[in-house]
Amino acid sequence: MRYLPLALLPVVYAQQHAFETQQQEPWAAKYGTQTDLGYTGPLSYSHLPYARCLDDPSTTFDIAVLGMPFDTATSYRPGARFGPYAIRSGSRRQSAAAGYALNWMTNPYTRAQMIDCGDVPISPYDNALAIDQMEIAYTTLLARPVNGSASARTAKLARDGVEHPRILT
Prior knowledge:
By secondary structure, the protein is α/β, with parallel strands linked by helices. Helix content is 29%, strand content 12%. The longest helix has 19 residues, at 4-22.
């Protein structure tokens, strides 16, 4: 008799757990899932998924948006380092769900898995080091296998916000 309450404990817990999973949060019950508006949410290019691709080798993509905040080669008006932020901020009105392009007659976001890989941490003081950091970032991400939703065999990078140096991919 002394062990009977312990034997009934899993039954009581299972019923309590089933009751808790059936309840929804008040927001979800009334309005559904939380979606980001064009002017809200975390800042990523066109509200794409964001990942630190240089840190996580398991991240797969077909096309990656990669910021290069570099402007130390200019002498009079620096500011290209703010380019990746400005491009992401300007793309907030776009989204993968509403990305239909009339000239292509398709939604380009559905043809390949796109991801925002953030900015490459570039040295603001040493140009040679900054160029090396950009090259290694490109080499690292271009060596990754593609996700497979596009017909390409290698991943593609869309670079934004870099000043004058060109690294061809």
